[in-house]
């Protein structure tokens, strides 16, 4: 069973997601106690895509994060480098291009799109898994139109010490055990816990987004900071 380490080797990350693709969405719902649906709704609200717009959902996986952006008539490119995740997404929808969502294979570090293609770019639970976060943020900026927007939905840190300690206990002790009920690849869920704890806090991520050239960077916490939604704009 392949799983990634904190060096986030792209080959290992892609193989790990290929491996868990079949039960990925089910396990998400279980491990987040259904909170993932609230996080996705908040992300859709922040992206606020409307008719005529083109949205890039990067690291889209099976496309669960993608289809909700089409609600007001926007078209979505769901891009990911795991063939397994893309295959499950396309099989579930009866094709690689359905109901406003088109699956495209691509690497966040070298996106297969022209400069200034998208009105909005977004990435849910993907940025933590890329090997070079600044490069991915730079690629996202390159493919965004001037005036376009960025929304990042990612696990983060709870600013209240005692609650954070309890949450870390859940991540390290309970989460991998629960995951074991649903998947053979327990290493993938140990990586999930470790990569969340290793991830920069809200302010540090905001600083990285800014240094990648994004303007008006701001964030808000969801579920007390278990997840944070970061936003930015391309000004030039
Ligand atoms: C945790 S899943 C998130 C999937 C989806 N966005 C969601 O919210 O359910 C992370 C995804 O990031 C993808 N990913 C990681 N690194 C990537 C890269 N460098 N380029 C493209 N996709 C990448 C993985 O293949 C995986 O499908």
TrEMBL record:
Uppermost EC category: transferase
Domain of life: Bacteria
Record key words, sorted: Menaquinone biosynthesis, Methyltransferase, S-adenosyl-L-methionine, Transferase
Biological role: Methyltransferase required for the conversion of demethylmenaquinol (DMKH2) to menaquinol (MKH2).
Stored PANTHER family: 2-METHOXY-6-POLYPRENYL-1,4-BENZOQUINOL METHYLASE, MITOCHONDRIAL, METHYLTRANSFERASE
Gene: menG
EC number of the protein: 2.1.1.163
Biological pathway: Quinol/quinone metabolism; menaquinone biosynthesis; menaquinol from 1,4-dihydroxy-2-naphthoate: step 2/2
Protein name: Demethylmenaquinone methyltransferase
One annotated GO biological process: methylation
Binding site for S-adenosyl-L-methionine: 62, 80, 107-108, 124
Catalytic activity: a 2-demethylmenaquinol + S-adenosyl-L-methionine = a menaquinol + S-adenosyl-L-homocysteine + H(+)
Family label: Belongs to the class I-like SAM-binding methyltransferase superfamily. MenG/UbiE family.
GO MF, one example: demethylmenaquinone methyltransferase activity
């Amino acid at each position: 069973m392949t799983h990634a380490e904190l060096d986030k080797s792209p080959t290992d990350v892609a193989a790990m997601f290929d491996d868990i693709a079949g039960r990925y969405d089910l396990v998400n719902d279980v491990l987040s106690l259904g909170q993932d649906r609230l996080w996705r709704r908040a992300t859709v609200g922040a992206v606020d895509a409307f008719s005529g717009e083109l949205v890039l959902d990067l690291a889209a996986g099976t496309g669960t994060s993608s289809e909700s952006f089409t609600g007001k008539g926007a078209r979505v490119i769901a891009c990911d480098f795991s063939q397994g995740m893309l295959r499950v997404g396309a099989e579930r929808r009866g094709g690689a291009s359905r109901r406003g969502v088109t699956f495209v294979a691509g690497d966040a570090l070298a996106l297969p799109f022209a400069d200034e293609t998208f009105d909005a770019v977004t990435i849910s639970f993907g940025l933590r898994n890329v090997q070079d976060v600044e490069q991915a943020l730079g690629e996202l900026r390159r493919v965004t139109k001037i005036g376009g927007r960025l929304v990042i939905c990612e696990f983060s840190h709870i600013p209240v010490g005692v609650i954070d300690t309890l949450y870390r206990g859940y991540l390290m002790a309970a989460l991998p055990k629960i995951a074991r009920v649903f998947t053979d690849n327990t290493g993938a869920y140990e990586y999930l816990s470790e990569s969340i704890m290793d991830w920069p806090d809200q302010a540090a991520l905001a600083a990285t987004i800014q240094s990648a050239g994004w303007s008006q960077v701001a964030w808000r916490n969801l579920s007390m900071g278990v997840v944070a939604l970061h936003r930015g704009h391309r000004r030039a």
